[in-house]
Design goal:
With 266 residues, the protein is mainly alpha-helical. The chain is 72% helix and 0% strand. The chain has one domain.
Length: 266
Amino acid sequence: MMNLRVRQTVAVARFELKRFLLARRWIGVYVLALAPVLLVYARTQIRGGNDSLLNPSQAFAAVFQFFILRFGIFISCAVVFTQVFRGDILEKTLHLYLLAPARREVIAVGKYLAGAALVAVLFTVSTAATLLLMYSHDGMFSAFFFEGPGFSHLVRYVAVAALASMVYGAEFLLIGLKYKNPGVPTLLLFAWETFSFALPSMLQRLTVVYYLLPILPVKADAGPFAIVVDPVTPIFGIPIVLALALALVSISGWFVRSVEITYSAD
């Protein structure tokens, strides 16, 4: 029985991933993933080898934390995961899934895995390309990547991008199922995560970025309004993030069990 559910989950994920890759509605997601790469590439072409960027590591930390993580991945997950079921309702194809000989939890997990794979691949590739381009015209490129901590930095940034895609995707999968209009909860969650640095210590521990930022090799300056808190160690932070994603996907699977097809209401 377990093998059957695994095969069904993989089949749903593969089918959904093909739909995602062919859907025009995700063009904005591709643009968000490509934006930092194009911006950094344009900078290197304009400044060439005389780039006055004094600290590429600090510059990339700011790009990653304030654009890729808090905006690009967050918004992309909001767009993709709130629509994995809502899109089927709008296209009047949800009943084809619900009538299939598969548990609804399997359908939810399969859709989640497809969305997580799409967003994670886009932004891990974007993160790696942006970091490499940041050093492409810097004389320290070889020393940083082949003799220094460059590859360690790269792995940690890519890991955070993947983890963020997983946990934000799980959050928005549940939001998309629970709310017919996910706009308001999305804006509230966006403000919560974006301005988490200004929250009291106890509230910062209720945000996702609190557990992701300590994994990063370089911390960006959050400004004069930032409240400094003791960071959680990655050995505890990573399992917490994964457990949160698993719990949210499980709750989403429970919600799917009570979903009724009401195309006329949408």
